[in-house]
Design brief:
Layout (H helix, E strand, L loop, with lengths): L1 H11 L14 H11 L20 H67 L7 H14 L2 H6 L4 H19 L2 H13 L6 E9 L2 E7 L5 E12 L2 E4 L5
Antiparallel strand pairs: 1-2, 2-3, 3-4
Length: about 240
C-alpha cells in the first residue's frame, strides 16, 4: 500500500527543473558587448592591443589600421601582378606552340609538295630522241636507273600509235604494252647492264630492230636488244619490247 502511494505521488508531481550554469561569455563577446555599450562599431579584427593586452588609443589604432590596410593592398597588388605575369606567360607559351605547329605543318606541306612536284617533273620529262643512237642511250640510262615511268615514255603513246598503226594496230599495240610486260623487259635489260658498263653505240640487228652496244671492261663488249623502233615525225619511239 505504501509503495503504491509513493508511485502515485511521483507520477502526479510536476517535474523538477534543476538550474544549469550559463556558459561564460568569450573574450570576443565581452569586447563586442563593451564596444557596443561604448558606441564603438569597430570590428574585432580591426582592433589593436599593446603587449599588456590593453587596447590602443583611437589615433594609434587608426595608424595601425592604415598600415595594415596598406600592407593588405600591397599584397593584393602583388598577387594580381603575379597572376597577370602567369597569364601572360601562358599566352606566350600557347602562341609559341601555335607558331611551331604551323611551322611544322608548313614544312610537311612543302616537303610533300616538293616530292609531288619532283615526281610530276620526272613523269613529264619524256625524252625525245631524234636518232637510234639517242634512243639506245636513253634505254641504257633507264635500264641502269630502273625507272619504269621513263622507260614507258620511250614507247609510242596512244595518239602516236593511232597515227602510225591505225586504230586496230594501236589497240593491239596498247594491249601488248602492259605494265607487267614492260617491267619484266626492263628487269631483263637491267640484268645485262652491270654498273661498270659503258654505252658505246647502237647496232641495227634486223630491219628496225636495234641493240645497244656496251663495253663491260677493256676487252669485253656486249649487245643488249632494246626492241623494234619506229620514227614518229622527227622522234624515234620504241614499238616492240625486246625479244
Amino acid at each position: 500500500m505504501f509503495r503504491c502511494t509513493l508511485l502515485t505521488l511521483l507520477l502526479v508531481s510536476p517535474p523538477v527543473v534543476f538550474a544549469q550554469d550559463e556558459p561564460e561569455p568569450t573574450e570576443e563577446a565581452v569586447e563586442a558587448e563593451e564596444a557596443e555599450e561604448a558606441g564603438d562599431d569597430t570590428p574585432p579584427q580591426l582592433r589593436f592591443y599593446d603587449e599588456n593586452g590593453e587596447r590602443l588609443s583611437a589615433e594609434e589604432e587608426s595608424e595601425r589600421r592604415a598600415v595594415a590596410l596598406e600592407i593588405a593592398a600591397k599584397r593584393d597588388a602583388d598577387r594580381r601582378a603575379y597572376n597577370d605575369r602567369l597569364e601572360n606567360t601562358r599566352k606566350r607559351n600557347y602562341l609559341m606552340l601555335a607558331v611551331l605547329a604551323l611551322l611544322l605543318m608548313w614544312l610537311l606541306t612543302r616537303r610533300t609538295s616538293a616530292q609531288q612536284t619532283g615526281t610530276d617533273r620526272r613523269r613529264s620529262e619524256r625524252k625525245a630522241p631524234v636518232s637510234p643512237t639517242e634512243l639506245a642511250r636513253a634505254v641504257f640510262e633507264v635500264a641502269r636507273d630502273g625507272n619504269i615511268d621513263a622507260y614507258r615514255g620511250l614507247f609510242m603513246n596512244g595518239g602516236e600509235a593511232n597515227r602510225i598503226l591505225g586504230l586496230e594496230g594501236a589497240e593491239r599495240y596498247l594491249a601488248m604494252r602492259t605494265h607487267k610486260a614492260m617491267e619484266d623487259a626492263l628487269v631483263n635489260m637491267a640484268v645485262q647492264v652491270p654498273p661498270n658498263a659503258v654505252f658505246v653505240g647502237v647496232e641495227e640487228v634486223d630491219e628496225g630492230t636495234f641493240a645497244m652496244k656496251l663495253t663491260i671492261d677493256a676487252r669485253t663488249t656486249a649487245l643488249v636488244p632494246i626492241g623494234k623502233a619506229v620514227k614518229v615525225g622527227a622522234i624515234f619511239r620504241l614499238l616492240e619490247l625486246p625479244q
